[in-house]
UniProtKB/TrEMBL annotation:
Superkingdom classification of source: Bacteria
Transmembrane segments: 20-39
Protein name: Bifunctional diguanylate cyclase/phosphodiesterase
Signal peptide feature range: none
Species the sequence originates in: Sulfitobacter sediminis
SMART domains, sorted: EAL (SM00052), GGDEF (SM00267)
Ranges of residues in domain PAS: 215-256
EAL domain sequence ranges: 450-735
Residue ranges of domain GGDEF in the record: 380-515
Keywords: Membrane, Transmembrane, Transmembrane helix
InterPro entries: Biofilm_reg_signaling, EAL_dom, EAL_sf, GGDEF_dom, Nucleotide_cyclase, PAS, PAS-like_dom_sf, Rev_trsase/Diguanyl_cyclase
Length: 739
């Protein structure tokens, strides 16, 4: 049969065949022993039955030969013998199991146990006979003859069994021989199996040893060829295996039989090892040796500048340690470079942060740093002092920007050196500074700060031997002195308002954002909100004031004046909201709103057949002239309405301000006032420009102005400013001529 890899092609192995054979041997041996036991049992039963039959027959023969059992002693002796035989017959019947009875019937062909039962029955009848034998009137002869006949029949049956028993004895001998042979074969098989197992075990052991030797060879070759240093220690720290790199790392050529702590001590004492560190802790050689046996990592610095990483790990079996040494010199160099680069980057980052949060000229925190500090206040107590330099532009224009820079540095030095109880002093603009006072500070504290700083700023400051004149204005605000909750941003806005008030008061001054000023600002803010809503709802309306010819008294035009109707029924004149509108840069929008209403009113007048000679409207000259509208210079003699402006604008009418008209129109006024008024009239005549005087409050003033040569008059003497309906009624009632 062809085999492949130690197995039959049928797929049944030798082990399987051997197992089947051993199973058959064991089964046959077990059956032989079982048959032998049954045969022995049958033989014993037969012998017991035969002995009982002979004893019973002998007893009955003895009774028949004696012929009488009248003697009590004789009956007692015979009765005892019968009871013994009955017990033996009962044991023969009851001491065998059902399986043994079936086996005996199968082998013998008849039942030995039936003979046992018959013997037991004969013995019981013999017992009754003994009882009758004691009675002279009993038929003893008949009873004995019946028992004798039955005993003979039993003897004949027993005689037929003897040949079967002889055959059983021969079978029993063969069974014993078969069992003996099975045992011998079993012993031989066990011996063969043991021999095979021993041979296989020896083969496995020899293969394992060869494999171990090969593994050991490969392990040593791997250690020898490894780039890193490799060493193997036993449990006591003795070096068992190593490669050249491991020996070279410590500068010791012969490592055989040496301990790791000894190698470390030699390397340290020779100066080869400079430092041993593990987890940022410097170790001694003894500490490192102890850690190696437990498994650790350490960095070793050598005198030639090399860095070696030593890594130790216990083997799984726990009976040794493996050490790996790897050159980390390049890695350490890169780490040092990285550390140096990180330090440079950190320094550059700090410098960048410093520059981002500090003014490069003065070194003070800048606007961004101040905003961060303001945000950090987190709606808590906040007191601020705003500082704005006065005449700083004069210093730049006169002495140059270098001088201006020196002034800024000087002010920064004052803020740094003055013993101020402050949280922060910053430069937030060109010539603007701010000081943040402590949390518990209030307006009084801020005012004290302003006084100290102002005293230092007023001291003479020289630049290149020349005295620089400049000053400072201060505005202070604190949310500790205001009933309404002000955020830090709100406090900054309040300090700006106070600074604006200080500059408006004449510069080189200080102002506080008091509760009264706060209420004023709140009212102004509400007015500003209302102004915006008014523009959205188009509620600004024109009022008209008549302008009359000074000589004829006829209506020559209407001046348009803006009015703001409020919800409470009051009408606000321009003086109440125009300054705020100028700050909000909403004057042009108010102009457009008024102009829109005037156009509608003119269309209505045209529909009514009313002709208006001219409409005087306050607006910018370019926009009006481009629209084909006549231009009048309002409030001439005050503000920006100068003589030079006349040449630039070339107006159609020159309107004299009421503050000039009132004193000059009175004949009792000094000649200087009248001279000024006459000069203005002459300028208008020289420019061939119409001259109009406003503020005419009486007929006398009107006559005086007419005498001085004024062309047109306007004032309460003729009419107050009126809305469309009322001015239309006024024109209808008064007519086109005013007396």
């Amino acid at each position: 049969m062809e085999k492949r890899a130690g197995r039959d092609v049928t797929g049944i192995s030798g082990r399987t065949v051997f197992g089947i054979f051993m199973f058959g041997v064991l089964l046959s041996t077990a059956l032989s022993f079982a048959g032998y036991g049954i045969l022995q049992r049958v033989s014993g039963l037969h012998k017991a039955n035969y002995l009982q039959r002979d004893a019973t027959f002998e007893l009955l023969t003895s009774i028949q030969r004696t012929g009488s059992l009248q003697s009590p002693a004789r009956r007692i002796a015979v009765s005892g013998r019968l009871r013994a035989l009955q017990k033996s017959a009962a044991w023969c019947r009851a001491s065998n199991s059902r399986m043994e009875r079936r086996a005996v019937r199968l082998i013998v062909g008849t039942s030995l146990f039936d003979l046992c039962e018959r013997n037991e029955s004969l013995l019981r009848e013999a017992g009754r006979y003994l009882v009758l034998a004691g009675d002279p009137s009993a038929p003893t002869g008949f009873a004995f003859a019946a028992i004798a006949n039955r005993l003979i029949l039993s003897s004949e049956t027993a005689d037929r069994i003897f040949p079967v028993l002889d055959r059983l004895e021969s079978v029993e001998g063969r069974a014993v021989r078969i069992a003996t042979m099975g045992i011998a074969m079993l012993l031989l098989a066990c011996g063969a199996v043991g021999l095979q197992m021993r041979r296989r075990t020896m083969e496995i052991l020899r293969g394992t040893e060869a494999e171990r030797l090969r593994d050991q060879t490969r392990f040593r070759r791997a250690i020898r060829d490894a780039r890193e240093g490799l060493g193997v220690l036993d449990i006591s720290g003795r070096i068992e295996e190593w490669n050249p790199s491991f020996a070279a790392a410590f500068g010791v050529e012969n490592l055989e039989g040496r301990f790791i702590d000894e190698i470390l001590r030699i390397a340290v004492s020779s100066g080869r090892i400079v430092e041993i560190r593990a987890e940022d802790v410097t170790l001694t050689t003894g500490q490192l040796a102890a850690r190696i046996m437990e498994g650790t990592k350490a960095d070793i610095r050598f005198d030639d500048g090399r860095f070696v990483r030593l890594s130790a790990a216990r083997v799984d079996s726990g009976d040794g340690v493996v050490i790996v040494t790897a050159d980390q010199t390049e890695i350490h160099r890169q780490k040092e470079e990285l550390h140096t680069l990180t330090e440079r980057l950190s320094a550059a980052q700090k410098e960048a942060n410093h520059q981002a949060l500090n003014d490069p000229l003065t070194g003070l925190p800048n606007r961004r740093a101040f905003d961060l500090a303001l945000a950090a206040a987190n709606d808590g107590p906040c007191t601020l002092l705003r500082i704005d330099l006065d005449h700083f532009k004069y210093v730049n224009d006169t002495f140059g920007h270098d001088a201006g820079d020196e002034v800024l540095k000087h002010v920064a030095k004052i803020l740094k050196e003055t013993k101020l109880d402050q949280r922060l002093a910053a430069r937030i603009g060109g010539d603007e500074f701010v000081v943040m006072a402590p949390k518990e500070a209030n307006l009084a504290h801020a005012e004290t700060l302003a006084t100290k700083i102002a005293a230092q700023i007023r001291k003479p400051f020289h630049y290149n031997g020349r005295l620089c004149h400049y000053g400072a204005s201060f505005g202070s605000a604190s949310n500790l002195d205001i009933s309404d909750d002000l955020s830090p941003r709100g406090v900054l806005a309040a300090a700006d308002v106070a600074l604006y008030r200080a500059k408006a008061a004449g510069r080189d001054n200080s102002a506080l954002y008091t509760p009264a000023l706060h209420q004023e600002i709140v009212a102004q803010r509400r007015l500003a909100d209302a102004l915006l809503r008014g523009l959205e709802n188009d509620i600004f309306v024109p009022y008209y004031q008549p302008q009359v010819d000074a000589v004829t008294g006829r209506l020559v035009g209407l001046e348009v004046l803006a009015r703001w109707p409020r919800r409470d029924g009051t009408i606000l004149a321009p003086g109440a909201f125009l300054p705020l509108a100028e700050q909000m840069k909403k004057v042009s929008e108010i102009d457009r709103c008024i102009f829109h209403h005037v156009r509608k009113d003119m269309e209505r007048w045209a529909g009514m057949g009313v002709t208006i000679p001219k409409i005087a409207f306050n607006a910018s000259s370019d926009r009006l002239r481009d629209s084909g509208i006549r231009i009048e210079v309002d409030d001439f003699g005050s503000g920006h309405a100068s003589v030079m402006a006349l040449y630039r604008v070339r107006p159609d009418c020159l309107k004299i301000d009421r503050r000039i008209v009132a004193p000059a129109a009175d004949r009792r006024a000094d000649s200087g006032a009248q001279a000024v008024l006459k000069a203005v009239v002459e300028i208008g005549k020289a420019l061939e420009t119409e001259v109009l005087a406003e503020g005419v409050e009486s007929a006398e003033i009107a006559r005086n102005l007419t005498a001085l040569g004024v062309d047109t008059l306007q004032g309460y003497h003729f009419s107050r400013p009126l809305p469309f309906d009322q001015i239309t009624e006024w024109m209808a009632v008064r007519g086109r001529r005013i007396a």
